[in-house]
Design a protein that fits this description.
By secondary structure, the chain is α+β, with helices and mostly antiparallel strands. Helix content is about 35%, strand content about 15%. A hairpin with a 5-residue loop joins strand 3 and strand 4.
Length: about 180
C-alpha cells in the first residue's frame, strides 16, 4: 500500500468513526434517512485527488480560509473546479482545493500539499448559489456545511451537482 493509500484510508477511518457515532444518535430517530452523517456522503460520492500531481496557484490565500481561497481561485480560473472534503497532512481536516479537468490538484491554501485528499468536486453554479445565500447548517465546510446538507442527509446526495473528475474512492479498493 502506498503512502497516499494509507492517507486516504486514514481519512475513511476518521469519517467511519464520525459516521458510526452519528448513526448511533440518529438512526433510530430518523430510520428512513439516506445518510446520517456527512462522512457517509463523502465515502459514497467522494473522489481521490493525488497530491503528487499538485500544481501551484498564482498566490496562496490566507491560512485557515481554504473554502474562500478555493472558491476565489475557481472563480478566477474557469478551467478549475472547486472541491470540498477532507485532506490530511497529519490528521484529517475539513478542507477545500481546486482541480482541473484531468483531476490535477491545485492547493490554494497550504504551502505544502497534504498526503491525502478526498472530496466532492462541485459545479460552479452550486458553489455560487451557496455563496449567494450565505446560509449554513453546520460549522464546517462551505457547500457541504450549507443548508443543502440536511436535505442530502434525508433524501440522498444529488450527483448532478458534481463534476466528473478525480478518482472514485471505490477504485482504491480494487488495486
Amino acid at each position: 500500500m502506498t503512502k497516499i493509500d494509507q492517507g486516504i484510508q486514514g481519512i475513511v477511518r476518521w469519517l467511519d468513526m464520525l459516521t458510526s457515532t452519528a448513526k448511533g444518535n440518529s438512526a433510530e430517530r430518523y430510520p428512513h434517512w439516506a445518510h446520517h452523517h456527512l462522512g457517509e456522503i463523502l465515502i459514497k460520492h467522494g473522489r481521490i485527488f493525488r497530491p503528487q500531481s499538485a500544481l501551484p496557484v498564482d498566490n496562496l490565500g490566507p491560512a485557515k480560509r481554504c473554502f474562500h481561497n478555493s472558491m476565489e481561485v475557481a472563480f478566477t480560473h474557469d478551467h478549475l473546479t472547486y472541491v470540498e472534503g477532507f485532506a490530511s497532512a497529519v490528521i484529517p481536516t475539513e478542507h477545500a482545493w481546486c482541480a482541473d479537468a484531468n483531476g490535477a490538484l491545485y492547493e490554494t491554501t497550504w504551502t505544502t500539499p497534504g498526503n491525502a485528499y478526498l472530496g466532492i468536486p462541485f459545479k460552479w453554479d452550486i458553489v455560487a448559489q451557496v455563496n449567494d445565500t450565505d446560509e449554513f447548517a453546520s460549522g464546517g465546510g462551505f457547500v457541504l456545511g450549507s443548508t443543502l446538507l440536511p436535505h442530502w442527509l434525508e433524501h440522498g446526495f444529488d450527483e448532478s451537482l458534481t463534476v466528473d473528475i478525480g478518482e472514485p474512492l471505490a477504485n482504491l479498493h480494487t488495486r
